[in-house]
Amino acid sequence: MVNTRAERLRTPRPAGRPLLQLVEPPQTQDQETAGDRWSNMREASLGSLDAAAALGHDPFKSQVRLWMEKTGRQDLLHPIRLENDSHAYWSRLLEPIVAAHYTLRTGRKVRRVNTTRQHPEHRWMSATVVREVVASPEVQLLECLSVGMQMAPLWAFGVPEYIRLRVLHQLAVTGARAADVVVLLGGQDLQVYRIERQEAEIARLIRQEQAFWRHVERDQAPPALDGDGPTL
Asked: What whole-number distance in Å separates Cα of residue 194 and Cα of residue 162?
C-alpha cells in the first residue's frame, strides 16, 4: 500500500497509458472535488512558479519550504496570507491591463489560454501558461507582472533571477523559442524584456531541478541553504 506522497511519485505509471501534452482544468459539477484533483496534479510536479525556489534563488520561498509543500507537510508551515493590499493581489488584478498595454506598445496580439502543460520527457516538470503571443515567429509566451515601489529595486538591472528562472522553466516545458516579460513598475513605468531559449542553460536548469525533485521522491529534505530556516 502506497502511503506517502514520495512513494506515490515513485510508483510507475501503468503501461500503455497515453502521455498528455496539454492538461485542462477539470470541468465538473463537483467543483470542490475537481479543484482538489487539479491541485494534486500541480503538487505532484515542479511548476514554473517553483523553479527559483527549487534552485534556492527565490527571495520569497526557501528550498526547504518548497520541499515541505511538495511532500505534503503544509500543516507544519506558517501560512502565507494573501491580503487584498498585497503585491500578489494587485499584480493579478492588473495583469489584463498590463497585457493590453503590451499589445498597444508592440502591436502583437495576445490571447489568454490559462493551461498547464507537462514536459514530454520529464513528467515531473509542468508549466502554467496564462498568455500566448499570437502568430509571432519571434516570441510565443507572455508573462505579465505588476510590481509595487517596494519591489521595484529588484528590477533595477533588468529581469530578476527568480523571474528569469520561472520563464526559462516555461520555455523548457513548452518548447517555445522565446517569451516576453512585461512589467508595470510602481504603477507608471511599463518595461518589456525578451528572454530567449538557450539550450545549454535549459539543460542546466533541468539538471538542477531534477536534483531537487529526487529529494521529493525520496522524501528526504534537501540540505538547508543560508536563509532557509526563517522563511518556513
From this structure: 15
In the three-class reduction of DSSP (H, G, I as helix; E, B as strand; rest coil), residue 37 is classed as helix
Compute the Cα dihedral for 232, 50, 155, 134 and give only its sign. negative
Angle at 193 between CA 120 and CA 80, to 5 degrees: 70
Single-letter residue type at 15 = A
Fold of 25-222: Lambda Exonuclease; Chain A (3.90.320)
The domain spans of the chain are 25-222
DSSP letter (8 states) at residue 105: H
pLDDT, tens digit (0-9, with 9 covering 90-100), for 199-218: 999 999 999 999 999 999 99
Helix (H) or strand (E) holding 42: helix 31-43
Place of cell 536548469: 205
In whole angstroms, give the CA distance from residue 61 to residue 50.
9
pLDDT digits (tens, 9 = 90+) for 56-77: 999 999 999 999 999 988 888 7
59, burial (CB in 10 Å: exposed 0-12, middle 13-18, buried 19+): middle
